[in-house]
Design a protein that fits this description.
It is built from 5 helices and 30 strands. By secondary structure, the chain is an alpha+beta fold. The chain is globular.
């Protein structure tokens, strides 16, 4: 009887401990750090540079945003990165880890890597090679009967199908016609012998013209930050000078940023199910842009232009994966009108870079920048992103410099997108627990 009582008591204690452990895992946010590099994009693939960041933004959907997990990890990490046109993060994936390159992208959900099967006898692949599933003991594929492979998944609209091997196949065409397709799989991000994520769902691309994959960081339940339960991350994009050949170093954090006490925060806009519209991306980091100033003059743009209208068009999102800033037609027309008023005779007539940028010049960029003046994006709570006149223009090719703003319709989207070009020398922190984005001025090339 005593033994039986003791066994029951022991079982009861173990059950309590087991449940407590589950709660502890679920209520803690895991933080990791990765080395980042950058890669120049194809000269004639400007759309690729700006569209890879928003895989799902133009897709109508009904979405279930991942609820932030309370609590935070006691582990906080940082890493240096190089910046050219896009932030490329190098991630240790698999068991043992293979270093893979992925675009750090706050504008998309699905993460995917380049996959290729190689002989296990070959040496470990260098960082620029594709992932070899046969070398990882933690790799597994998703069968066709997996729930994520079923149609009408609430916030996952990338087409899936069943391939000839009864595996879950996905395919996605970028707006420039680039195809990325492969199988949906599960794999760990293995950061050390004692730390790794649980197996995460990601794409294993076997057909893609891209040199690297995508690290989806938006609010979708299948994004990297949602699956890995990372509630806060930040980056500081250094000032790029002298064209894309110069790649300065910035800083990236997953978890707590020791500089956050200097940040100014604005609230993320949320959209309940009743407000979901066809052109709205409820998974993006959407903020309340109030206006734009050029040379100290606030442009006559109604605030409603920067908010979703009845059809969902007009939201303003912060996007690390989009290179330049893009505005809906009403806002863009006012910006261009002011630039033409200030420096119209100096515009390069009939020239459009990458099908998007048409405020371009052959002249001295410093002189033209002084004529245009400083530019600022104004948000609620008095927060602004200030772009000094010295960096109004970006060198695009052959001595040509363009204002880093394009028309959103050139991308086939109906949103305002603030790209990484206008996030230079600025800390940008995404905090999903408190539903806010923080900005802090910095010399990002000197930040440690």
């Amino acid at each position: 009887m005593a033994i039986e009582y003791f066994c029951k008591f022991l079982f009861f204690v173990l059950l309590i401990l087991f449940n407590f452990m589950q709660i502890t895992v679920q209520e803690n946010t895991v933080s990791f750090s990765f080395p980042l590099t950058s890669a120049p994009l194809l000269k004639n693939a400007s759309h690729k540079a700006v569209l890879r960041a928003s895989l799902l933004s133009s897709q109508p959907r009904k979405a279930l945003v991942q609820k932030p997990v309370p609590g935070s990890s006691s582990y906080d990490y940082k890493s240096a990165f190089k910046y050219s046109m896009a932030l490329i993060v190098s991630l240790p994936i698999g068991t043992p880890p293979q270093t893979q390159q992925m675009v750090l992208d706050t504008g998309s959900q699905l993460s995917w890597i380049q996959c290729h099967r190689k002989s296990p006898k070959r040496p470990p692949p260098p960082p620029t090679t594709s992932f070899d599933p046969s070398l990882s003991s933690s790799f597994s594929v998703l069968p066709c009967n997996h729930p994520i492979c079923k149609p009408r998944i609430p916030d996952f609209t990338i087409p899936t199908s069943c391939d000839q091997n009864r595996l879950c196949h996905y395919s996605y065409f970028y707006a420039d016609g680039t195809l990325a397709e492969g199988n949906l799989v599960r794999e760990k991000f293995t950061f050390s012998s004692s730390r790794s994520t649980p197996p995460l769902i990601l794409g294993c691309a076997t057909e893609s013209a891209e040199a690297e994959g995508i690290l989806g960081m938006n609010l979708g339940r299948l994004s990297f930050i949602s699956q890995a339960k990372i509630s806060k991350f930040s980056y500081c994009v250094p000032l790029r000078q002298g064209g894309v050949q110069t790649m300065p170093t910035g800083t990236f954090y997953l978890g707590q940023n020791p500089n956050s006490h200097t940040f100014q925060y604005i609230s993320l806009l949320t959209f309940p199910q009743s407000q979901r519209k066809p052109n709205l991306d409820p998974l993006a980091f959407t903020v309340a842009l109030l206006g734009i100033k050029i040379g100290g003059k606030k442009l006559n743009i109604p605030e409603a232009v920067f908010r979703p209208d009845a059809g969902g068009s007009g939201q303003t999102m912060i996007d690390s994966g989009t290179q330049y800033t893009f505005l809906v037609d009403t806002a863009y027309s006012k910006v261009r009108e002011e630039v033409v008023r200030l420096v119209g005779p100096k515009l390069k007539k009939g020239y459009v870079y990458g099908g998007s940028l048409d405020m371009c010049f052959d002249g001295n960029p410093i002189e033209i920048g002084q004529l245009i003046g400083d530019m600022s994006f104004q948000f609620d709570k008095g927060v602004e992103i200030l772009i000094s006149k010295e960096r109004i223009l970006d060198h695009v090719e052959g001595g040509v410099h363009c204002v880093g703003i394009g028309r959103s319709e050139s991308l086939g989207v109906a949103s305002n997108i603030i790209g990484n070009f206008h996030q230079q020398n600025l800390w940008v922190e995404f905090d999903t627990t408190n539903r806010q984005v923080g900005f802090g001025k910095a010399d990002c090339s000197k930040t440690v």
